[in-house]
Amino acid sequence: MHTKQIFWILALVVFLAPIDVEAQCAMCRAVLESESTGKAAEGINNGIVYLMAVPYVLVAGLFYFIYRKMRA
Questions:
Q1: Helix segments in the chain, DSSP class H
Q2: Rg of the chain (C-alpha set)
Q3: Model pLDDT, residue 34
Q4: Residues 25-48, buried b or exposed e (16+ Cβ, 10 A)?
């Protein structure tokens, strides 16, 4: 095997390997777990989805703008 093939195989294994992580700080987790209604957890989850979606929308808009410029 060539060095480049070994590199790509190792990179693929590293990026596809599942990793268990705890992404919340201890205080946030304690507050969200102790709440009985779940409204705060729902709000936190909605905020995360909103923050995650904005970069995708911006990149899609950029690619659309580039596509329109290239077609004209």
A1: 3-16, 26-34, 39-71
A2: 21
A3: 82
A4: eeeeeeebeeeeeeeeeeeeeeee
Contact 32, 40 (CB under 8 A): yes
Beta carbons of 50 and 59 less than 8 angstroms apart: no
pTM over 0.90: no
Sequence-separated (6 or more) residues with CB below 8 Å from residue 24: 32
Which residues, in sequence order, are CB contacts of 35 under 8 Å at separation 6+?
41
CB 5 within 8 A of CB 13: no
Give the pLDDT mean for 5-31: 76
Determine what percent of the chain is predicted with pLDDT higher than 70: 88
Residue 43 has pLDDT above 80, yes or no: yes
Q: Tell whether the torsion through CA atoms of 23, 28, 33 and 37 is positive or negative.
A: negative
